[in-house]
Design a protein that fits this description.
mainly alpha, elongated
Length: 130
């Protein structure tokens, strides 16, 4: 079975070697790959956000909520994601914090739901104006 997997991997590598790069300049190819990956990541992130938020609020309102994010919310989210993806201890700290926040919100479910709905409405309004 290991031989079969190695043969498939070799065949895939040979096929990849035969596909020409978009540009003869390797730096241009690196820039194109970076742009493609960042664009794909942004589209995937937006789709996941809309899916998670839209299940409760509806797709249109979810789009407005995402659009209404402040610069501070974006920077904090990016910083937390970077800490979580840089190291195992960072992932543990961020994951533990998210778990603690979720459990805290569940304990205070009525108050947390009311406060969250007010915040979402405000953010959706900012998204309408943007």
């Amino acid at each position: 079975m290991a031989k079969k997997g190695k043969k498939l991997a070799d065949a895939a590598k040979d096929a990849a070697d035969k596909v020409p790069a978009p540009s003869p300049n390797p730096m241009t190819n690196l820039i194109l790959a970076d742009i493609a990956l960042r664009t794909g990541g942004a589209l995937l992130r937006r789709g996941v956000e809309k899916g998670l938020i839209g299940s409760k609020l509806g797709s249109k309102k979810a789009g407005r909520v995402i659009k209404g994010r402040s610069m501070m919310q974006t920077l904090v989210g990016t910083a937390i994601a970077r800490v979580a993806t840089r190291s195992v201890p960072g992932a543990i700290v961020v994951g533990g914090g998210l778990l603690a926040k979720t459990l805290y919100d569940r304990k205070r479910s009525r108050k947390a739901e009311a406060a969250g709905e007010v915040a979402v409405e405000e953010q959706a309004e900012r998204g309408k104006k943007a």
